[in-house]
Predict the 3D structure of the following.
Amino acid sequence: AQSVTQLGSHVSVSEGALVLLRCNYSSSVPPYLFWYVQYPNQGLQLLLKYTTGATLVKGINGFEAEFKKSETSFHLTKPSAHMSDAAEYFCAVSLSGGSNYKLTFGKGTLLTVNP
Amino acid sequence: KAGVTQTPRYLIKTRGQQVTLSCSPISGHRSVSWYQQTPGQGLQFLFEYFSETQRNKGNFPGRFSGRQFSNSRSEMNVSTLELGDSALYLCASSIRPQMATNEKLFFGSGTQLSVL
């Protein structure tokens, strides 16, 4: 069965510092991987996704993630944090193809950005 | 273009009651998925509807049900409410079914259900 583990339920960084949010997945077949962001009192918004091809994926708001099959990881990074990046971030995995599709989310990482 | 609209925004119910939540997808989107979000369990998939048919279902008891209308609007019903049903219920829409294409999901702001 597929699963997602996000390491660290809460990450705190200073404004201008590197953001690194960790995600490891488990899947028996090649996965599709996603990062979503949830701002306070809002729904989730897609940041980026990996399906096939280039393993370094660029998303909105300066975020990017790299798919590393050997490490079963899909960590999210941003070189310089902004105050507006404060939100909860969710990693998600789905099976590529198949008849019993289900998007499985990690439990989320709350990002705090300090001035 | 209007986003995904969920009503009501907040609901307070007591144990044993039933509740109906509504979701209007983005115009042109025919797939609607429902998720339950709680601090302990995170986001859990409830079900997905496409063209008025349930396409996929998560591991929730039969008290949780849904339907989709011809205009793609969807409702979710929870009967015999339990304290553990307190959660944020999120609806997401997409143009095509998730299972076929891994479509990008567009989420509403959710309905916060509190069961007392």
